[in-house]
Amino acid sequence: MAHHWDPAPLRIPDLAVDSIWFEPTAMTGVTNFEQDWDSVKEKTFLHRFKAREIYRLLSTVLTSNLSGDIAECGVYEGGISALLAKIIQNQSPEKRIHLFDSFEGLPKLDHNKDLKFYGEGMMSFPENSVRQFFEEQQLTEFSVFHPGWFDQTLPKLEQEQSFCFIHIDCD
To answer: Which residues lie below 8 Å from residue 130, measured CB to CB, with a gap of 6+?
Structure first.
């Protein structure tokens, strides 16, 4: 009898990951993480462990008082964007998060270069749904939406615009 291996990713309980990778002294900057994560986790594919690292990194950057805003390239449902906006809200309310996404999903693929299991339009999520989520989370004043393809939206930024942190999660 042949053994069938399920290629689905293994799920390690969050507590086990946390106890392996985080010492209590390494928890600087994640004091509100649990509450913030609970409010956004249904709107992201990222695992809690990775989200917490992003949270910690941005918190550290903001305590360094670097100039510039925050950007996310690849928004999807807005979960991580909202998590970043919550950090801004709590630590640096003068900053903004710039959200860059086509909101149309993946562009037409070249199957000679792109993975075959992706298809045109996959990963689409309506911009108005992300905006509504930001309204529900009371984060609209901290966000700037840039709908469209990166090659069209990024060049339109003001020359003075700078970023102290950019999360790139695009396909």
So the answer is: 75, 77, 78, 81, 99, 101, 103, 145
The pLDDT of residue 29: 53
- As a whole number of angstroms, the distance between CA 153 and CA 161 comes to 13
Q: According to the model, what pLDDT value does residue 43 have?
A: 96
The structure tokens listed for 165 are: 């942190």
Residue 100: CB partners within 8 Å, gap ≥ 6? 71, 72, 73, 74, 75, 146, 150, 153, 154
CA distance linking residue 43 with residue 154, whole number of Å: 24
* Residue 161 burial by Cβ neighbours in a 10 Å radius (0-12, 13-18, 19+): middle
Gap between the Cα atoms of 70 and 162, Å rounded: 9
Q: Is-contact 106 118, C-beta < 8 A?
A: yes
Supply 100's token pair.
């860059």
| The residue to which tokens 């984060």 are assigned | 139
* CA 87/CA 142 separation, integer angstroms: 10
Give rounded-to-5 percent helix, strand, coil for the chain. 40, 10, 45
**Residue 117 host element (H or E):** none
pTM (2 d.p.): 0.81
For residue range 55-85, list pLDDT tens digits in order: 999 999 999 999 999 999 999 999 999 999 9
